[in-house]
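We store chain and fold; thus.
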Amino acid sequence: MNLGILKYDANNVSFFMFSLGSAILEEYGFRGIVFPKVMQVVKGSSFRKLMFGITISGVLFGLIHFQNIFYQPFLVTFQQVMGAIPFGILMAVLYARISTILIPMLFHFASYKIINLLPLNG
């Protein structure tokens, strides 16, 4: 179905919903829950708490992507994990800086489209 400049395609709709759902759930989980919990548990200065929160939430965010090993080759999964760790750290820094989870959610959502455009597997 063609809706003017927007082309309706079930694959595009599925990809959109997956991207939106993942962005909301992952950011809420890692930045909204893990990040503040780590900061509560860590002893020391505010800076130390902040650095631990950023690092742990970012690394756990990356490591959770190892679940993709069940449906894609190991090397592809490993590359995804290695890219997701710095991305998770960046999203935690962004969240800590602006104190709202909506912006990291939007960045995360946008990253799916950007990554989908890159010729990584071919």
